[in-house]
Amino acid sequence: MALSGMRGLSVFISDVRNCHNKEQERLRVDKELGNIRTRFKNEKGLSPYEKKKYVWKMLYIYMLGYDVDFGHMETVSLISAPKYPEKQVGYIVTSCLLNENNDFLRMVINTVRNDIIGRNETFQCLALTMVGNIGGKEFSESLAPDVQKLLISSSCRPVVRKKAALCLLRLYRKNPDVVNIDGWADRMAQLLDERDLGVLTSVMSLFVSLVSNNAEAYWNCLPKCVRILERLARNQDIPQEYTYYGIPSPWLQVKTMRALQYFPTIEDPNARRALFEVLQRILMGTDVVKNVNKNNASHAVLFEALALVMHLDAEKEMMSQCVALLGKFIAVREPNIRYLGLENMARMLLVTDVQDIIKRHQAQIITSLKDPDISIRRRALDLLYGMCDVTNAKEIVEELLQYLNTAEFAMREELALKAAILAEKFAPDLSWYVDVILQLIDKAGDFVSDDIWYRVVQFVTNNEDLQPYAAAKAREYLDKPALHETMVKVSAYLLGEYGHLLARRPGCSPKELFAIINDKFTTVSTSTVAILLSSYAKILMHNQPPDVGLQQQILTIFKKYESYIDVEIQQRAVEYFELIRKGSALADVLAEMPKFPERESALLKKAEDAEVDTAEQSAIKLRSQQQTSSALVVADHPPANGSASVANQLTLVKMPSQTSSDIQESTPTYEQAPKPPVETPKENGAPFDVESKATSIPEINIESKVEPPSTSHSASPADLLADLLGPLAIEGPPPVEQHPAQVSEANQSSVGDLALATLDDQSNSVQPIVNVEEKFHILCTKDSGVLYEDPHIQIGLKAEWRAHHGRLVLFMGNKNTSPLMSVRALILPPSHFKMELASVPDTIPPRAQVQVPLEVANLRASRDVAVLDFSYTFGTAPVDVKLRLPVVLNKFLQPITLSPEEFFPQWKALTVHSLKVQEVIKGVKPMLLPEMANLFMSLHLAVTPGLDNNPNNLVACATFFSEATRAMLCLIRVETDPQDRTQLRLTVASGDQNLTFELKEFIKEHLIDMPRTRAAPPPTPVQQQLPTPAPPATYNDPGAMLAGLL
Amino acid sequence: MIRFLLLQNRQGKTRLAKYYVPLEDSEKHKVEYEVHRLVVNRDPKFTNFVEFRTHKVIYRRYAGLFFSICVDITDNELAYLECIHLFVEILDHFFSNVCELDLVFNFHKVYLILDEFILAGELQETSKKAIIERMGELEKLE
User: Fold this and answer.
1) Fewest beta carbons less than 10 Å away: which of A133, A338, A759, A904?
2) Domain AP complex mu/sigma subunit: where (chain B) (predicted)?
């Protein structure tokens, strides 16, 4: 038996091992602790050797799970011992027992520093090791410069320098300021020339961390990394001891490739070529071998190479090589490789357009969903989730539902959430969506969060066609003997709202509905009781001709709950009771719930919140964040989902109910200025407070109760309420959303001249990771999305428009694990806007999101754009950006369709020269008429066919809102020449001279093909795949509509 | 980076625990309990990776001992899996044919070796020879 070299320690360990049970062990340990305590108390007579022995014993006892806090002091004090054996114990045990927050550490900070700057190499190593393992703010502040000196010193041995590198890394993680970027890029480059591979390994870890925070600063190191890889991969002069099963340090290779993934791209053609050669060699040359360790090591390198290739967006050939490899991996038996194949395939989905190839493996992936190993199942689930689109949603979601029956608890919640999201995003038809969600609730009610059933209610409310179907389904479920409470809630809600639509079916009279719901009444919790009460009130309202018996039954229940202990229920009971006695007013007050405004899916938000935090975000993840923003952006899906044209539809922010009405015949409802019932309460004869409450109770109360206290969108209850009250206040959705983005991306690029490049030379060290200009363009025709994003912050925006008013909310999300300081936001509005920005907090806490509302009033027509001057400090680096706000002329336009009888008199009446302006425009971007119609639609100009007999002409109308003009009709006519699509004649007429001019210019800007925007690369791929879509068809596709809501 | 490294036997007794992130004692006990439960019943035919909270545990079993490393989700799994094996080879070399008892009675040596192998949650040295030589140097000082 190996012994410890310290007899007392060995004896104690043996004793503990000989204990037969936990109780005996505790007795033995307690005895020892008592002994140690007494010995420590009378320090006299305690030899250094004994001290050392007792401290080791304490560590052993600590490992067994006992508390040894009393000995911290003794342990720490050993650090100051003059001799190595005691000092060593002090350092090692301290770093095991204490964490960075422990006050005792302060006592030794000087000793530690003296050891670091002293001449004793062994002491240096001990001190560096402890500081590297514990970290801590105070160490970081006081020791960093000394540690740096050791790292770059030429006289230190490698054993010191590698520890110094990692110690510095730890201090840097705690406080990035300890490394001064300016000087460090050159030093780092030198350090990467290191010949000692131990030092180089440590240095590379430090480098990965530095570069992950600021790749820009370390460009000069990039070629060095490539050279290291070449050196390793070609197996040149690597000491034998650094090869592992014949592979030149796989860990250093992996680290180096990881570092390279933080550089956005590799421009230097030589470095690029050299790197691709190495990568090619790895991709081609990695074979499966028998030796497990060798196999693992070579595949570790291979998978890192795959990640790097994906990041670099290599040539097509290499990419397909990667996909082929992954396709092979996900079919192998070896579990680790299969797992990694699935994982990397999911990552690949995020960065490249390989959806179609990956879809070929769907069956294989579904097999892995049934693997006995939960790790593999999780990866398969993730991948299926990522690869799902409209074409395979039905199949995938049904697989998930089936799997739900057998899945273990650990996975059910995730599974349910994912199934719900996919069903929502890609539903081929809405009734299928309802089926899926109800099945989900039925099968896994405990794992279905409230968000899921709220969402289904929203859809049903917004889609009349769906209402009878959903009600019938709910009725069916109520027949089941055992029902999950969530199912009771959703069924009761649906039957309360829409039960009357089933009145003629058997078993669906108000009386029967009431009876079957009331069956569950005694078994449910208070939150459900509240919903049931509302349902009863609604059922009663539809009880025509009145069934007195039913009324009595329900009134009795209300009466009974008038004095109920739960305030919410009591209030409902009292109010409903009174309302019912009011008779006919009941119908007004309890009218059907109004449609919900477009809003982001709480589910998606939730899925995003679940994101993990990592010390260093992988480059792939950083990139994927540019696509699926983690902050809020709901209508901004990566085109990777679905074909390009589908992706395009996804970006439509639309209410399903609106979309179902054909744009061609946009109905007169659009013309009505929205009438907020809140302002005109007397109209329907009920006092406002009762009314809004009665109709909104089921939503407000429940949602505000359960909304998780997340940092995202609906953080504060006040905002949540405002959000929820939204629909009541506007009756219909806000005007602008009614004809949003019929945009093809092609049109967006034509907004180019409006948005002339970036504002100034934004000479920040931090660069945006999204194309700011492109984001601006997108937001010009959309009402939510990302406005700006850099490595530290993401600014999202959501807007609502009502006549000449707009309300924008800026969502500022800190992506870091440290706070952003000195946050300032200032609006520089042009003279035609009145803008009021709510105050911005000085600090955005780590991973938090703040919402800053911005109120806008449009005074008159103008094409000038407001600018947001935004700045913050991260670490010591100040960042200042100026962002144009997408508050553009078309936001204040509301499409309107006129009949010929209405149009022509107006058109003819506007004869004054300056009110009706005509211009022949040349250099128009050639487009077919339907394309142009789309463009106009995206600008909120309602194209009205049939007004002009000439099929080559196009007539559009809209109402413009500003304080100066009030609601003013604008009429537009475009005459095109089919022989020459580069020119056309544009006529614009309105009752306001300035408006006519500005609108004409505005439209012109959108029609002219600006060379600048052609150069802008990102939109092009989508653009090309847009062969004049037939708008009605796309609008009738419920999947797209649903997705649009997301 | 490595968040923590655990060495546990089948009964869940901790033989070595090293944390590279600051955790309270109660949290450490919880982590050790949970990780043990997570890995102990996994079929040998399963992957060596398990998701653990928002991280990932890479583990490997040698006789009755489980070596578990908790790393970030995006870290290279196989590289850490082989890092465990390299550690075991170093221990094996140092104790010449290592067994659980060696690690129990010489736990303090194991901590020393670990400090030469991993620091601040990152690999410090991957040469077995360099580490064994370094240990020789240190032993002379005691």
Assistant:
1) A904
2) 1-141
Confidence of residue A4 (pLDDT cuts 50, 70, 90): low
CA distance B91 to chain A (A): 13
Q: What count of other Cβ atoms lies within 10 Å of the Cβ of residue B40?
A: 15
Establish whether the linkage from the previous residue to A82 is cis, with ω within 30° of 0.
Answer: no
Which of A179, A210, A239 terminates a domain? The answer is A179
Q: What is the 8-class DSSP label of residue A850?
A: E
User: Taking a contact as any Cβ pair under 8 Å apart, which residues of chain B between 92 and 111 contact chain A?
Assistant: 95, 101-102, 104-108, 111
CA distance A404 to A414: 10
Matching residue, tokens 């001891």: A241
Domain count, chain A: 5
- What is the C-alpha separation between A150 and A162, in angstroms, rounded? 9
B2-141 under CATH 3.30.450.60, yes or no: yes
What single-letter amino acid sits at B139?
A: E
pTM above 0.90, yes or no: no
pLDDT tens for each residue of A956-1003: 888 888 888 888 888 898 888 888 888 888 999 988 888 888 888 888
Q: A988 by DSSP, 3-state: which?
A: strand
Residues A873 and A932 in one domain: no
Contact of A95 with A134, CB cutoff 8 Å: yes
Integer Cα distance of A509 and A955 in angstroms:
51
Q: Which of A493, A393, A404, A394 is nearest to A446 (CA)?
A: A404
- Residues of chain A in contact with residue B128, where contact means CB-CB under 8 angstroms, are 241
- The full set of domain ranges for chain B reads 2-141
Q: Looking at chain B, which residue has its C-alpha nearest residue A614?
A: B72
Helix (H) or strand (E) holding A801: strand A793-802
Q: Indicate if the alpha-carbon torsion angle B72, B73, B76, B79 is positive or negative.
A: positive
Amino acid, res. A640: A
B11 touches A at CB < 8 Å: no
- Considering only CB atoms, which chain A residues are within 8 Å of B19? 99
- Do residues A882 and A902 both lie within one domain? no
A735-772 residue pLDDT tens = 333 343 333 333 443 333 333 333 344 456 778 888 88
- A24 and A145 inside one domain: no
The partner residues of A801 in beta bridges, in order of sequence, read A806
The answer as to whether A185 is a domain residue is no
Cα separation, A992 vs A861, in Å, equals 9
Q: Which residues contact A483 (CB under 8 A, 6 or more apart)?
A: A477, A491, A520
Q: What is the three-state SS of A877-907?
A: EEEEEEEECCCCHHHHEEECCCCHHHHHHHH
Annotated binding site of A: 7-8, 49, 53-57
The verdict on B62 touching A (C-beta cutoff 8 Å) is: no
What pairs with residue A786 in β-bridges? A796
CA distance A285 to A278: 10
Question: Considering the domain boundaries, does residue A612 fall inside one?
Answer: no
A580 and A455 within one domain = yes
To which H or E segment does residue B52 belong? strand B49-52
Distance from CA of A875 to the nearest CA of B (A): 21
Radius of gyration of chain A (CA): 34
Q: How many CB atoms lie within 10 A of CB A581?
A: 10
Measured distance CA(A28)–CA(B55) in Å, rounded: 37
Helix or strand (DSSP H, E) at A920: strand A916-921
Q: Indicate if A582 and A537 belong to the same structural domain.
A: yes
Single-letter residue type at A464: E
Say if residues A172 and A616 touch (Cβ distance below 8 Å). no
In whole angstroms, what is the distance from residue A28 CA to residue A32 CA? 6
Write out pLDDT tens, residues A182-192: 788 999 999 99
* Chain B nearest C-alpha distance from A673 (Å): 49
How far apart CA A52 and CA A91 sit, in angstroms, is: 11
In this structure, are residues A948 and A933 in contact, taking their beta carbons and an 8 Å threshold? Answer: no
